UniProtKB/TrEMBL annotation:
This is Ribonucleoside-diphosphate reductase. It comes from the Archaea. Its cofactor is adenosylcob(III)alamin. It comes from Halorubrum kocurii JCM 14978. Belongs to the ribonucleoside diphosphate reductase class-2 family. Belongs to the ribonucleoside diphosphate reductase large chain family. GO terms for biological process: deoxyribonucleotide biosynthetic process; DNA biosynthetic process; intein-mediated protein splicing.
């Protein structure tokens, strides 16, 4: 960029708006003419579009709006009836629909009638139903359809691809993805595969959790054999996905997840490695040795073929692409694994069948030997591997090609709309260490019980120990339940107690130790510094409650509270009267009076002549005490105090110790502050509250045992009373000084005694170590347990004890993705300010960056339009749930019950530019956080309004929305509303409303950036020729980039010229390298390559704060990024609450659904091999001469020469000459389905009716795949014309395998060579009808076109045939050669990596990665 002095306040940043009268004018030419026709427009049987883009959006809008007919009719009290003739007119199975809707045996021609409902409306057509509706209902439906249509036509909102493709069509399957995981049962595995097949046929994708399946080598009780493990079943699912042709114009995609604790996870991590994929190919199709019964043998051979740099011989490059090619795979990482990683410990695996630590079998040893970890495995012993070893394998895979990904299971969202323990149907199993619900956790708001934090459902900062971090508070996840488990009680000699599972770790002098492994005498750490407190409550309230607990009583019958003051206590009674009057300001009934001190007169013989007794009585104070819970249990630290302000907690302790505490001891027998009570629980709670002030203490039980004692009876006499045991809490050592500074006494005599004790120390009091000695760990029942995650120190303080965190959160089965995207790039206000200018002028006026950004966005965003899009986007997606026809009954039931939708965004990066904000900065992340939160809150409001119209989702009564005050913090976080105002429940239609999903092709339609991703680049190559190897490769520029240049009078032609020159020389590195672009503009056009992986991760975490569900975001890295940099991002997202990681390193070989773990280096060739051999000879022999002088070498050379001489004496073979080609031939063309598309094979006969030549075409003329196919056909033609037996050619070709397979006429087609062999065999076996067209002359076939694009599956006229290739078009202009050179480099890089360099849809060369998916810039094709 140039430092030309142009400042931000001089720039014009053009505000984007969709303009144009027609759709063709509004859409880009690429979207209108390429993407929509190729991907979304309805087509006839010949694949030709039968609608235009205007009709596309109208079809979708009307179909989705049809749901309104049902609900609006119900609102108006009108019944709408329908008849069979109103079913979808073009549906090929109308009679089946009629039977489903109107009853068995009914056909579309019958006279029948039924009510239109939410369960059958998706079987009808807008055109047949809406005209017949009552006028008021019809007008509402038509208005909604217009609203939906306008949103799409103005590119303001775009639904996901399945909705665009299938709405109003036969499939009517409008959801993108589904979750369905197999159980550890062969029947369920096959049932899941069946359900997945139905989803693929409908155009959807599937996600599976494979960790429930028992590991390789585990016993199978039904057969007495051993299990093959989950990877084998994944291969079955992969093959099924490959085979099924989808009706929804989308290729099946699958996500496989394996929990890191599964014993076979090492096999899963390496499943898509280059060596593993090659081994599978060799085992199945090795021309040299087809008897590889052992995969280990095949793997060993594969590794011998791959050199140390990861290079594969060129002829084997296709063999490394096929294994699990239809899967994206991710490892489900748990907190206990991350703990082991951070602590450099081993990680123990769990057998999912037994839920116990996995004991290694010989098969376990076998698979770990394969991947270099066998040294850690002993058969018969528990399987435990260094966590770092597994982690390194995962990171290396990510570095090489982005797989396997990682999902942090514990992040999969406790912020759920259901209390999953109260409603177990809404969770799956979790097995993690945890604590009981009554555990007091030290938080930013004081001491709060774990169960209460769980019910609040929001993240809290927690207190961490000073030995683990200098910072007192650390950000943590919300608390979540992990199930019902066996509980143990950890007790200490000092009185600290904690109830927890035996595998929960606590901090000791020896580090983290599981509770079950603690022994009596071990030391555990307790909180060693002052913690944090809440915001509510006054010192006066604390003092009143403290004295009430210490020296007060409650007269329940009279409903009166009494504070008692005896003797020296009288000095504070008047101050307490003032406190009580402050606390109980509001009168109860007629009790509106000043509360004072009452003197109690007693006889001299009661307690002596000097005795004083005073009381403060109050009905209003009774009410206050009752609210604090003291009426039910007087001797306690009230919850209001535990979570109250520091002043309230201090006041409580000061009053309690003033009433019942004492200062004791001397230099001879020790000094201490003591609190005596017969209520042990009160002392335990007090001990925990003291520790939050950094004051450690010790409880002595039964300092005075229970007994009968003579005590005054109140009538001047004495009487024997049974007394409870008395316990004492003692504060000693330096804690006394801390007490004096933090708490103190209200009474002067006690304060003076404490001061004298502290002054009497010759030296400072002994310092506190903040440890406690374990007394015992004993079983304590079974109950619900809880946990949280603090990502930095991995700890929190529970009942004063320093404990480790852990936990995981699961996803629900059978849910579906119903997605839509708001276009943020057209929401900037017309007069939006530039943040760079605005912040210089106004940022200092605000207390925080968040407040400043909020004020800026009020000026910069058109919130009226924003809210309109949120409103109709939410309504649109809610209708999609009603209108979608789901392929599996269980999925339909789950989706309709929960009505989960995902309203997301696209165009965030382009919005940033219009606002003068750089992508990846803190300011940009704050914008994302606030905008996503606004969408979340506003969509909840619309969903609430929909619930009032249509009713809540079916399980609403079990959700947190039904009880907002019980889940106050959760509710207010996700709705932005006051829980008290919705105490009776917040009706809502959809339990989730927001997400950020991939928007690859839909964002291209909207002419904006994808999702929350940055701009890919401002310039890229675009192919304008059908010939991908031709010269017409031109540079295309981002249109908003050019528009910005034009608005600011920058020489656009000069910018283009500079960019083209750099691209031709492979030196283009984004805007940074363009001297013709002013800095003030260039700094805003942040492209993917400009960002570090950590910056990508920060954007993801910022967006997540305002989203219900997950975020689709790729953390992109430059090609030279190291594995260490990638690991930093994995840890960053884990440490900052992210749910998962998707990465891509530029230039690496990652095909997402079609991918391998191959390194992206060139394949080994002969010259490289020669260099390597020479180098090795030098290392071993010291040079070539020494090598040749070696006796063994000479003998080998002599033997080779002898063999050559012997061969030279053999008779020379005369190769046959090709038969000349006559002027005309008869032929037949067949169409064969392959995994790479439709293959057309033409076989021409000679005059004797024998095959003479063969032509084959697939894909686009001149394309990568087609060029290989044409070359193979020419070789076959040469063989035929040279007299080779066609049966031998069939034998050679058939059975050749490749990564992609297909089915054709009941036969599996394993590759293109296999397809050609099959076509030739069918010809020879006379299995096709041979239509014989006549060719007139050779001249007629010189410029032959491609074979027909469609057939009926049998033979068609061959037309003309020739072996003369068509010439490629040539570009004009001086820049064409340079442009083509750059294109050739890009193409060679792809070819060297074993990939096809062309888009399989349009043949274009401009593939790029968008949201982790390879995407075509020309036609919008995506592999995801």
């Amino acid at each position: 960029m140039s430092s030309d002095g142009v400042a931000a306040d001089e720039l014009e940043l053009p505000i984007k708006r969709t303009t144009g009268e027609t759709m063709e004018e509004r859409l880009t030419a690429n979207a209108y003419h390429n993407i929509l026709p190729a991907r979304y427009l309805r087509k006839n049987a010949d694949g030709e579009p039968i609608e235009d883009p205007e009709e596309l959006f109208d079809r979708v809008a009307r179909n989705v709006a049809l749901a309104e007919a049902v609900f609006e009719a119900e609102n108006q009290g009108v019944e709408v009836t329908v008849t069979p003739d109103q079913l979808k007119p073009d549906h090929p199975r109308r009679d089946e629909l009629a039977a489903e809707v109107f009853g068995a045996g009914t056909t579309a021609e019958d006279d029948a009638e039924t009510t239109l409902t939410a369960h059958n409306v998706n079987k009808f057509a807008y055109d047949t139903v809406v005209p017949e509706l009552p006028e008021s209902v019809r007008e509402h439906v038509e208005a909604t359809a217009d609203r939906f249509r306008d949103g799409m036509e103005q590119l303001s909102f775009m639904p996901n691809s399945p909705t665009l493709m299938n709405a109003g069509d036969e499939l009517q399957q409008l959801s993108a993805c589904f979750v369905d995981s197999p159980a550890d049962d062969i029947t369920d595995i096959h049932q899941t595969a069946k359900e997945a097949a139905e989803v693929f046929q409908s155009g959807g994708g599937m996600g599976y959790a494979f960790w429930k399946l028992r590991p390789y080598g585990d016993s199978v009780g039904s057969t007495g054999g051993i299990a093959s493990g989950p990877i084998t079943f994944m291969r079955t699912f992969d093959q099924m996905c490959e085979t099924i042709a989808q009706g929804g114009a989308r290729r099946g995609a699958q996500m496989g997840v394996m929990r890191v604790s599964h014993p076979d996870v090492i096999q899963f991590i390496h499943a898509k490695n280059k060596d593993v994929s090659l081994a599978h190919s060799l085992r199945l199709n090795d021309p040299d040795d087809f008897t590889h019964n052992s995969f280990a043998d095949a793997l060993e051979e594969a590794r011998e073929l791959i050199d140390e740099d990861g290079k594969v011989p060129e002829h084997l490059r296709n063999a490394v692409e096929g294994h699990l090619s239809n899967f994206n795979i991710s490892v489900g990482v748990t907190d206990d694994f991350m703990e082991a990683l951070y602590n450099d410990e081993e990680f123990t695996f769990t057998n999912p069948r037994t839920e116990e630590p996995h004991v290694a079998t010989p098969e376990t040893k076998e698979i770990y030997d394969m991947f270099g970890l066998g040294e850690h495995v002993e058969v018969g012993e528990v399987l435990s591997i260094p966590a770092q070893e597994l982690w390194d394998d995962m990171i290396e895979g990510a570095h090489e090609n982005g797989e396997p990904g990682v999902i942090y299971l514990e992040r999969v969202n406790k912020e759920h709309s259901f209390d999953v323990e109260e409603n177990p149907d809404h969770r799956i199993l979790a097995t993690n260490p945890c604590v009981t619900g009554d555990t007091l956790i030290s938080t930013e708001n004081g001491l709060v019980e774990a169960e209460e934090l769980y019910e609040q459902g929001v993240s809290r900062d927690v207190v961490v120990d000073g030995r683990l971090s200098e910072e007192t508070l650390k950000e943590a996840s919300s608390v979540y339940k992990t199930g019902e488990k066996d509980v143990y009680k950890l007790t200490t000699e000092e009185g600290y107690e904690l109830r927890l599972t035996d595998d929960h770790r606590v901090m000791t002098d020896d580090g983290w130790v599981e509770a079950g492994n603690l022994d009596a005498g071990d030391t555990v750490h307790i909180q060693n510094r002052k913690g944090s407190f809440g915001q509510h409550g006054t010192a006066a309230e604390g003092r009143v409650l403290g004295w009430m607990v210490g020296d007060g009583h409650l007269k329940t019958g009279e409903e009166r509270a009494v504070l008692n003051f005896y003797d020296e206590d009288a000095e504070v009674s008047e101050s307490f009267a003032a406190d009580v009057n402050e606390v109980v300001r509001d009168p109860v009934g007629n009790a509106d009076y000043e509360i004072g001190v009452n003197e109690i007169a007693r006889g001299d013989d009661y307690r002596g002549t000097q005795a004083i007794e005073q009381r403060i009585r109050s009905t209003r104070l009774y009410e206050y005490a009752e609210e604090a819970g003291l009426v039910d249990q007087k001797h306690q630290v009230p919850e209001a105090v535990l979570r109250g302000s520091e002043e309230m907690a201090r006041g409580y302790l000061r009053a309690l110790f003033s009433a019942d505490g004492s200062v004791q001891g001397s230099s001879k027998n020790g000094r201490s502050i003591r609190l005596a009570s017969s209520e042990l629980d009160l002392l335990k709670q007090t001990q925990r509250l003291l520790l939050n002030f950094g004051i450690a203490s010790r409880i002595y039980k039964e300092r005075r045992p229970a007994q009968s004692r003579e005590l005054p009876d109140g009538n001047g006499e004495t009487k024997k009373y049974d007394t409870k045991a008395q316990h004492e809490l003692a504060i000693t050592k330096a804690n006394q000084q801390r007490f004096a500074e933090e708490i103190g006494f209200l009474r002067d005599d006690k304060s003076e005694q404490l001061r004298e004790n502290l002054d009497s120390y010759t030296y400072s009091p002994q310092s506190e170590t903040f440890t406690a000695t374990v007394a015992a760990v004993t079983p304590d029942g079974r109950e619900e347990v809880y946990d949280l995650t603090e990502p930095e120190t991995h700890s929190f303080v529970a009942n004063g004890v320093v404990t480790h965190n852990c936990g995981e959160q699961p996803l629900e089965e059978y849910e579906a993705c119903n997605l839509g995207h708001i276009n943020l790039s057209t929401l900037a206000a017309q007069d939006a300010p530039d943040w760079r200018v605005w912040s210089d002028e106004h940022a200092d006026e605000y207390a925080s960056k968040e407040a400043a950004m909020s004020a800026f966005l009020e000026e910069a965003i058109d919130f009226e339009e924003f809210d309109e899009r949120i409103d109709y986007g939410t309504r649109f997606l809610e209708n999609v749930v009603t209108m979608s026809d789901f392929p599996v009954d269980k999925i339909e039931q789950k989706v309709r019950d929960m009505r989960k939708i995902g309203l997301g965004v696209m165009g965030l990066a382009q919005l940033y530019i219009q606002l003068g904000i750089q992508y990846g900065t803190e300011e940009g992340n704050e914008v994302a956080r606030q905008l996503m939160t606004h969408i979340n809150h506003a969509s909840k409001q619309t969903s609430h309004e929909l619930a009032q119209e249509r009713g809540t989702f079916n399980d609403w009564e079990d959700s947190k929305y039904a009880n907002p005050t019980e889940y106050r913090d959760w509710f207010e976080h996700y709705t932005g509303l006051d829980a008290d105002e919705w105490a009776d429940g917040f009706p809502i239609r959809n339990h989730n409303t927001t997400t950020i999903a991939p928007t690859g092709t839909t964002s291209m339609i909207g002419n904006t950036t994808g999702g929350c991703e940055p701009i890919y680049n401002v310039a890229y190559y675009k192919n304008v020729s059908d010939d991908v190897q031709g010269d017409e490769m031109l540079v295309e520029f981002d249109d908003y980039f050019l528009r910005t240049l034009e608005e600011n009078d920058v020489d656009v032609d000069a910018v283009k010229q500079e960019a083209q020159e750099q691209m031709a020389a492979n030196e283009f590195d984004g805007v940074d390298g363009l001297e013709t672009v002013p800095d003030a503009i260039g700094e805003l056009f942040v492209v993917t390559g400009d960002l570090s992986g950590k910056q990508h991760a920060a954007v993801q975490c910022a967006c997540q704060e305002g989203v219900d569900s997950a975020i689709s975001k790729t953390c992109n890295f430059p090609n030279d990024a190291t594995a260490e940099e990638m690991e930093e991002v994995y840890r960053y997202i884990y440490d900052h609450g992210g749910k998962g990681v998707t990465v891509y390193r530029d230039g690496t070989r990652s095909k997402q659904v079609l991918t391998t773990r191959a390194k992206n280096t060139e394949f080994a060739d002969e010259s490289e091999a020669a260099e390597a051999i020479v180098e090795q000879i030098g290392e071993v022999f010291g040079g070539i001469e020494s090598f040749l002088d070696n006796e063994d070498v000479q003998q080998a050379i002599d033997a080779e020469i002898s063999d050559l001489l012997e061969a030279s004496e053999q008779p020379r073979i005369d190769y046959s000459e090709r038969s000349p080609r006559p002027d005309s031939l008869n032929g037949v063309t067949q169409r064969v389905e392959t995994g790479y598309g439709k293959l057309y094979v033409t076989i021409n006969e000679d005059d004797n009716g024998l095959p003479f030549e063969l032509f084959a075409n697939i894909g686009h003329s001149g394309g990568y795949t087609n060029s290989f196919t044409e070359a193979l056909a020419k070789v076959i033609s040469t063989a035929l014309r040279s007299g080779v037996d066609p049966e031998e050619i069939v034998d050679e070709l058939q059975g050749t395998r490749s990564p992609k397979v297909a089915w054709d006429k009941g036969e599996q087609i394993q590759s293109i060579p296999d397809a050609i062999g099959t076509a030739l065999r069918r010809y020879l076996d006379d299995e096709i009808d041979k239509g014989i067209p006549q060719q007139q002359s050779l001249d007629d076939v010189e410029g032959v076109a491609e074979p027909p694009s469609q057939t009926d599956g049998g033979a068609v006229d061959a037309g003309t045939a020739t072996d003369a290739p068509a010439e490629a078009p040539t570009a004009d202009g001086p820049d064409a050669a340079d442009d083509a050179a750059g294109a050739d480099d890009a193409m060679q890089e792809l070819i060297a990596a074993g990939e096809s360099p062309e888009c399989p849809e349009c043949g274009g060369m401009n593939l790029y990665y968008s949201e982790g998916c390879k995407t075509c810039e020309s036609c919008g094709w995506s592999e995801c």
